[in-house]
Amino acid sequence: MDALILTVMTLLKIVAVLVPLILCVAYLTLAERKVIGSMQVRVGPNRVGFKGLGQPFADVFKLMFKEVIIPTNSSKFLFLTAPILSLAPAVAAWAVIPFADGWAISDANAGLLYVLAMTSIGVYGVIIAGWASNSKYAFLGAMRSAAQIVAYEIAMGFALIGVLMMSGSLNLGDIVRAQSGGFFNWYLFPLFPLAIVYFISGVAETNRAPFDVAEGESEIVAGFHVDYSGMAFALFFLAEYANMIMIAALAAILFLGGWMSPIDGFGDGIHWFLIKTAAMLFIFLWLRATFPRYRYDQIMRLGWKVFIPVTIVWIAVVGFAIYFEVGPWFSSVRGAG
Amino acid sequence: MPEIRNYTLNFGPQHPAAHGVLRLVLEMDGEVVERADPHIGLLHRGTEKLAESKPYNQTIGYMDRLDYVSMMCNEHGYVMAIEKLLEVEVPKRAQYIRTMFDEITRILNHLMWLGAHGLDIGAMSIFLYCFREREDLMDCYEAVSGARLHATYYRPGGVARDLPDRMPQYEASRFTSKAAASKLNDKRQGNMLDFLEDFVQRFPKCVDEYETLLTDNRIWKQRTVGIGVVTPERALQLGFTGPMLRGSNIEWDLRKKQPYEVYDELDFDIPVGVNGDSYDRYLVRIEEMRQSNRIIKQCIDWLRVNEGPTITEDHKIAPPRRAEMKGDMESLIHHFKLFTEGFCLPEGEAYAAVEHPKGEFGCFLVSDGANKPYRLKVRAPGFPHLASLDEMARGHMLSDVVALIGTQDIVFGEIDR
Question: Is B412 an 8 Å CB contact of chain A?
Answer without folding.
Answer: no
